[in-house]
Structures are given as structure tokens and as C-alpha cells.
Please model this.
Amino acid sequence: MTDTAPILHMDDVRYRWPGRTSFGLHVPNLTLAPAETVLLLGESGSGKSTLLSLICGTITAQSGRVSVAGTDIAALSAGQRDRFRAEQIGLIFQQFNLLPFASVQDNILLPLQFAPERRRHVADRRAEAARLCHDLGLPDDVMSAGAGTLSVGQQQRVAAARALIGTPPLIIADEPTSSLDAATQATFLELLFGQSRAHGTTVLMVSHDARLSSQFDRVLHMTDIAKAVRGAT
Amino acid sequence: MILRLAYGSLIARALTVGMTILAIALSVALFLGVEKVRTGAKASFADTISGTDLIVGARSGSVQLLLYSVFRIGNATNNLTWESYQDIAARREVDWIVPISLGDSHRQFRVMGTTTEFFDRYKYRSGQSLAVRDGVLMDDLFDTVIGADVATTLGYQIGDPIVVAHGLASFSEHADQPFRVSGILEKTGTPVDRTVIVSLEAIEAIHVDWRGGAQIPGQSTPADVIRQMDLQPQAITAALVGVNSRLQVFGLQRSINEYPEEPLLAILPGVALQELWRIVGIAETALLAVSAMVVVTALIGMMATIFSSLNERRREMAIFRAMGARPRVILGLLVLEATLMAAIGAVLGLGLLYLGLFIGQPMIDSAFGLWLPIEAPTLRELWVLLGVIGAGAIVSLVPALRAYRMSLADGMTVRI
Model:
């Protein structure tokens, strides 16, 4: 771990889904350093999605502290949290990442619409989107194509370009490779890491696939960092 | 860019969106069409009679006098004596005067006795004169000119014989004095279309052998004897009057209303038409209300479409949310979409209206005598369009608020 301030810090965070007393999540401590690539392994139902929602600020913890890039996100208003998420976090989902009716270019540029800071990092949006596409191994004419016409592997790369544009400090990927075959998985991660290292971006990837472990700086297990709380406490 | 995405999303759902827009367009076209017909009907109604300054009859109500003298609805309670008629005709304010004698019928159509001056003086649709489509005006005592509807309904040609019945819906006919169709008028869209016009003398002629509403038994004067008789009427039903100067209308009206020999009534046709329209107008308001309901239905249909699209679009909304869009952006997107749909629908509806007018105008004119002018949308119509668009936006708030709550609850994760 480096000595710079952590990009993500979770301290004694407790969360319970509203209206459901039987399931909650307790994260005693989770810290991510800048430029780290971390794989978080966990079975489905272990609370991965809840954890990611807490980090992204679409849900807020009942107690404890979640800070991203030094900001306590609980201290922000709902609107500020949405803006903060747009500025600080690039997101990649398992699949269906893109708006199928929009062009690849519009999909890549979408987060900049809600993040003025990230927008400032990009001098020429079109050129930057094209560069990312090129660096992620997408064909040159992909920019104007409809996102819905691409293959799943290409769609995930477009999603990666969208997460990377404007260099947010943290990229969160939720099983981005599970819909890809093994060879494409490796290439995808290589390309993603190549871009994130170039800008010192932290990558937190969630997966249930332990075979990917070797490509990451650090591997965490959901069971080690968080406790799924069952029954009323 | 957000606009482009909203547009792209609409295009992606082209079929349902297209249907919704079509429904809105049709309802808007219907609403504007009804509005057009309404104003057209009102204008046509007001144009039923023009160029006539006063209508004179026996004293009754002004609407009643208008109804029987112009619209041939109902009956005169009393007649106007020939002496009174001549007194009025002799006044110096009077430029022209045309007598009208009603009371008999042919089949379901009224028979009107008048002079040939009627064809010059009676004007409709701001100054248009009656025109003869076939044949000529009455030449002989037993000649008749019939309206366009009479000719088409009864299939009459020039030269066909007509037997006039005494009174209305009566079985006693003036069978011994048959008339001959000498002329058929052009369609006017006025009650003239439904009138059988004969000369004033002919009305007298067919009643020569009649006393007190019944034929004198056994008496039947031959036509050539009748032709020798003095057929000056004793009384008429009403008279149309034109004055020399419009300034004299009110003075003449007052003096006729105060005519000492006989209780008379003179009315200004325009004013009486307005009074009558106030009664007839209730139906048009009801029609307008019904078509407004159709617009409301179309908008509710749009609301339903948006509602049903919400589930399939949860992922789209989750993507927006994950990219940092606030829930209110989602709300805005949906309202924007609905407003776009309503706007396209409204404009398309206007287009449909003009297309319909363009195609239907001549047909409506010849079938109903209703002239619908094709002109630039009125301010009122533009307000209607704006209202539809605004209502679309307001209606879409209901599903948009639901999407707002959904996207708050779902966040960026989608559970489908």
C-alpha cells in the first residue's frame, strides 16, 4: 500500500435494506490506495452489489463512514452525490452497459454530461473518445455505429472507454468479464489495466471468478471484508 | 446530447411511439375539425339571410318570426294584411319590399308564395344571390321554382307536375290546380333549398274554392276562369324589407312596431339570428366537449404507453443514474419525451386537418351547404395546440414521477 491518501475508505459501515430486517451488510474496514487494481471475490448473494451501491452513493449507510477520494459521501446531498459519482467513479456493469439506441460516441461521452470536472480533463471529446476506442482495440469506424449493433465483447470495451473518459480516480467494474469468453476476458483486462495505469486510476473489480486473480495487485474476499448480517440485530 | 438521446430512445420504440403520436394527431385533428365546423356552421347560419334590413310580420316573438319566415319552421300566429303591407311599402325609407306567403306544403317541403323580386333581393353568404341551375323563373301563374334539396329528394325535373297540399302534413290537396316545375335553384345551404316557391297570386289561386281551411264541396273553378280573376291577396305572412339608408333601419323598425292599425313586428335579421344561435349553440358546445374528451383520451393513452414502457426501460434509466444523472434528469427525460410526442402529434393533427379540409371542402359545401374556409390557423387554434402540448407534459408527470421513484430505489442496479 502506498503512503498517499486512500482513494476509498470504508470504516465500520453498516447498512440494512429498508423494509427488510433479515439482511444487512457490515463492512468493518476497506481501504483502496490510488492506482491499485483490486479483485473482490464473492459468491452471488454475498452483498457485492450492496457494497458497490454504498461506494457509489446510490444508497447510504445507516452508520459508519464511506469516503471516496477523501470526501465523506454521507455528508453530500443526494444531488451532490450523483454529481460526485459522475466525477469520481467510472462504472462498468456485467452486461447491457450501453444505451442501445445511441451511437458509440454518445455512449462514451454520456458521463461527461453530468461531470464538469471530468469534462475539463478532455480537450477534444470526440478525439479522446476515438483514442480510447483505438487503444481498447475497437475498429476505427465504431464511433458512429449504434451501440446495439456491436458484439458483447465490443460493447464491454465501449463501456470501459466510457468509464475511462475524463480520467476519474476510481473505476468500479461489476463482473465485466462474465459475459466474455476466456480469451476475450484476458484481453479486456489487459486493455483496461493498460489505460488505468497510464492515468493512475484505481480499479475495483467484483467477480466470482478466482482465475482472474493473477492479473490484479491485490485480491480480497467478500467474506473477509464484510459480514452479511442475517436476522434482526 | 440529452435531446439527441431522448430522440434516439423514441426512434428505438418507433412503433408504439408512432401509434401514440397518431392517436394524438387524430384527436387534435378531430378537435380542430369540430371547431372549424362549429365556426363554419355559425358563419353559415349567420349568412342564411343577408342584404335584408328588416323582416316584418304579425306581432309575435322575434325568434319565432325569424323561424317561420326564414327557416320555415313553425307557423305564423297571424297574418299581415295587404293594407299594412302597402302602407309599409309606400314609406319613403323603404327601398324595396318582398312579400312572403306561407302555409301550404308539398310532401315534406314548404310552399312559399312570393314575387320574382325575391330572387333578386334574397341574399345569403355575404351577398350571394340565388341562381337558377335548370330552367327559368316562374313565368305562368301555375309555375314553380324549387330548391335544390326538393329536386334531389323528390327527383323532380323541369316540367314535372306538382300538387300542393293545403296546410302542413295534410291530406287535402289542391289537386284541381297542379303546378309545373319551371326552374330548379342552385344549392345554397339555406332553407331556400327546401322550399317550393310559387307566385303570390298562385297562393290565392289555389284557395279560390276554399273557405275556412276546407274546400267548398262541389265547387271547382276551372284554371282559365281563375286566370281572369283578381288574385290580389288579402293578407300575407311576412315581408322582407330593404331600406334606402341603413341609418333609417331603427326608425322604420320603431314605427312599424308602433303601427296603429294592426299589431306588427319588425326585426333585424342579424340580431334575431344571434338570439337563435344562442339556443342552437348548446349543441355545438356539447360537440366541442365530446371532441375535447377524445383529446383527453389520447393523452391518457400516451400516459399508459409511457407507463408500460417504464419496465423495459429500467436498464436505460439505471445507466443514466450510474453515469451520474440525478433522478430529476430521468423525470425531465420522460416529460421531454412526452412533450415531444404531444408536439409532433399536435403539428401532425394540424396537418391532417388541412389535408382533410383540402379534400373535404368542396364535398361538405355541396352536401351540407357548409363553407369551411382554408386559412392560416387562428390564434385560438394555436392556443389549442399549445394546450395539448402542455397537457401532454402535465399528464406525463404521472409516469415520470413513478420513474423518478423507481430510479431512486433501483439506483444503478437493475433487478429484472
